[in-house]
């Protein structure tokens, strides 16, 4: 007999895998992040209910959960990397726009006289 907390954990993990697998647009990303955070909170609440001693059936089920957990970690890392790439692209676009609007803002001031005596 497998504990209900373990089966719910698996169901929540499957939802996490489904959410992180699909490519979301920037408009829907905030909803996806909120959903992921909610699912991770649900798993945190379930964790205290999954404790030793385990039956043989639960141990086999737990091995499946451990492999699913590795997949969740990989997909969450990829999701985080996509967000970071989008942020860096946005920042570089802002910098390019500033340079386009004021091309002489970053000109080197070679030959400027600096008075070191005061």
Order of helices and strands: HHH
The Rg value, from CA coordinates, equals 25 Å
Tally the beta strands: 0
What is the multimeric organization of the chains shown? single chain
- The gross shape turns out to be elongated
Largest sheet: none
Beta-strand fraction estimate: under 5%
Distance between the termini: 85 Å
Count of helical segments? 3
What's this, in brief?
This protein is 69% helix and 0% strand.
Description:
The protein has helices spanning 4-21, 29-46, 56-101. The protein has 3 helices and no strands. The chain has one domain (4-101). The model has no long low-confidence stretch (mean pLDDT 86). Helix 1 (4-21) runs antiparallel to helix 2 and helix 1 runs parallel beside helix 3 (56-101).
Keywords summarizing the entry:
3 helices, single chain, mainly alpha
Strand and helix layout:
Elements: H1 4-21, H2 29-46, H3 56-101
């Amino acid at each position: 007999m497998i504990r209900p907390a373990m089966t719910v954990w698996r169901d929540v993990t499957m939802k996490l895998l489904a959410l992180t697998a699909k490519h979301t647009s920037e408009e829907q990303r905030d909803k996806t992040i909120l959903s992921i955070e909610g699912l991770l909170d649900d798993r945190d609440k379930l964790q205290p209910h999954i404790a030793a001693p385990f039956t043989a059936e639960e141990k086999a089920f737990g091995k499946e959960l451990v492999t699913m957990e590795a997949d969740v970690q990989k997909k969450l890392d990829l999701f985080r990397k996509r967000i970071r790439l989008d942020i860096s692209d946005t920042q570089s676009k802002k910098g390019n726009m500033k340079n386009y609007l004021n091309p002489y803002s970053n000109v080197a001031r070679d030959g400027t006289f600096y008075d070191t005596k005061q």
